[in-house]
Design a protein that fits this description.
Blueprint (H helix, E strand, L loop, with lengths): L1 H5 L7 E4 L2 H11 L3 E5 L8 E4 L2 H12 L4 H10 L6 H5 L6 E5 L3 E11 L2 E13 L6 E6 L3 H14 L3 E10 L5 E7 L16 H10 L14 E4 L2 H5 L5 H4 L1 E3 L5 H18 L1 H13 L6 E2 L2 E2 L8
Parallel strand pairs: 10-11
Antiparallel strand pairs: 1-4, 2-3, 2-4, 5-6, 5-8, 6-7, 7-10, 8-9, 12-13
Helix pairs in contact: 2-3, 10-11
């Protein structure tokens, strides 16, 4: 964020918070509400919005605490993600940042870049989210000069190569695009081929291979994308499952089934009531359907 500010980009004030005194000073200077973020988290898990000083202090202690062993174990066994295991065992505390609150709505960019040059980029405004601070479930493709400039400037300044995600807040009052964080990884829309300059995998492959980028047909003419299984999990009756392009891998039925199984596995971990719902559905053998593009996703509870 400091580098982005040096480059003249639109960014909210951001500061590392090391202790409660730092936090009190920050709140006194920037006001409330304020956003607290823990480094190394994703999907909104490490984000809190505090509306009072007491809330800010409580959230800071939560975010700075080393991961609980039970949480690390669940993540490793259920999600096959072992990133929390060593921080939990070593009692390693995450770095917590405070960021000034920007009233508006979320937007996101994903890029393929090579040696500081952006080779392809996708820019979306977030239409629906899994929760108020969670990951996107429906996005809409947009053109935004500020977002494009920000990703190009930061890719050049940091001499980036590979796949990166940029998160923005589009300020409600002005429409300004505030860069709020950069993630060194692909995002959930990174595989979408949406025309020249908007095909992330093709652009990165061309950069790595030295070959000319191969033209690939757009996967859809629709601007709104419903992510699967995220939007289906959020609301199985969502109208976006029918009106938007449903990003579901029809040619990979095993992958679809795995997405659904994984959702129920995680739900069962957190809630006994979820186990009862699955069990009840299995006994009644009533399938759930998600119609889109002439297809039906049938979830056969009677099969493991």
């Amino acid at each position: 964020m400091d580098l982005a500010r040096q480059e003249g980009l639109c960014v909210p004030p951001t500061q590392v918070i090391r202790n409660i005194d730092d936090l009190k000073t920050w709140v006194a200077r920037t006001g409330l509400p304020t956003v607290l973020k823990a480094n190394g988290t994703s999907g909104g898990d490490g984000v809190r919005i505090a509306h009072t000083l007491a809330e800010a202090e409580r959230f800071f202690k939560e975010l700075q605490a080393p991961p609980l062993l039970a949480r690390a174990t669940k993540r490793a066994l259920v999600d096959q993600d072992k990133t929390l295991v060593w921080p939990s065992i070593l009692r390693r505390r995450p770095v917590v940042n405070a960021q000034a609150f920007v009233a508006g709505h979320d937007a996101t960019s994903t890029i393929a870049c090579w040696k500081g040059a952006v080779r392809a980029s996708l820019h979306f405004e977030v239409v629906n989210k899994a929760s108020s601070k969670g990951h996107a479930t429906v996005v809409r493709l947009i053109e935004n000069a500020e977002m494009l400039t920000a990703v190009e400037v930061m890719a050049r300044r940091l001499n980036l190569s590979g796949l990166y995600g940029f998160d923005f807040m589009l300020e409600a009052e002005t429409g300004n695009a505030y860069l709020v964080e950069i993630n060194p990884r692909s995002t959930q829309v990174g595989h979408l081929s949406l025309g020249p300059g908007r095909d992330i995998p093709a652009a990165l492959y061309a950069a790595l291979s030295g070959n000319a980028e191969q033209a690939v047909p757009k996967i859809t003419e629709k601007d709104t994308i419903a992510l699967f299984p995220q939007e289906w999990i959020r609301d199985p009756e969502s109208p976006f499952l029918r009106s938007a392009y449903l990003d579901i891998p029809w040619g990979e039925p095993e992958l679809i089934r795995d997405c659904v199984r994984n959702y129920w596995k995680q739900s069962a971990w957190y809630s006994r009531s979820a186990e009862k719902q699955v069990s009840s559905a299995a006994r009644s053998s009533q399938p759930t359907a998600v119609p889109a593009k002439g297809h039906t996703v049938r979830l056969d509870w009677g099969r493991k």
